[in-house]
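Exercise: predict the fold of this chain.
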Amino acid sequence: MLKEKKRRTIAVTLTITLAMGLTVFAKQVNEQAEIFYNNIKIYIDGAEIVPKDANGNTIEPFIMNGTTYLPVRAVSDALGQDVEWDGATQSVYIGKKDQTKPDNYLDRIQYSYYSPGTDDDDNALYNIKGSVNDFSGNAYTNGYLFKQRVFQPQVLDVPLNSQYSNLKGKISMIEKTDIIGFSTPDYLSNELFTIEFYGDEKLLYTSPLTNLTKTFNIDINTQGVAKLTIKLIPQKIGNLRSGTSMVALTDLALYK
């Protein structure tokens, strides 16, 4: 049985706002109108979706003055896009509101492979959950921390699945840390490193040699990269245990 048409006469005020770049166009319409609920269905790529609001309540599309109106949140969610309401400007944003903000962070993606370069636990990789401080006293609270006592290359693979076009971040030698599961070692080595970034086995970027007092910024083109490989390479390679070195890759912002 077809659902019975519902017809309702209401007074409506519509504020229609289009955000295009940094320019917002708004039109406010006040009118008396009839709206019709006619069991309207929504299909995306052949699959039906049931539109719901943020509280999980079903919202039915309706027709007014010959135009069909759909709930923007339900459609945006079904398309995998964020939706945000800005009450101050009476605007709906679909997708990323602020284009300067990252779409993701590298350390939030589960890495697919890690090699410490040694069979013992002298070398290790940590997600920074807490804070680490460089030799100039600057604090970092996210990213990766590489610990190294046996000076062999460490290798990390992270799947990007060709979703991101750019990676930005920082490289810094670390003096102090209080991250979960790891505290500052008693003796720090002044061993230095270079960091190489590969996209699907192709070299994308080689950092300068790390510096105890300088933080380096990175900006890497990752367009079309399915697998990102990071290699931490000591200046002097060998089974040396002359103290512990710590290198942080922080603020690893990914952009689509």
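Check your answer against the key: Residues 131 and 178 are 6 Å apart (CA to CA).
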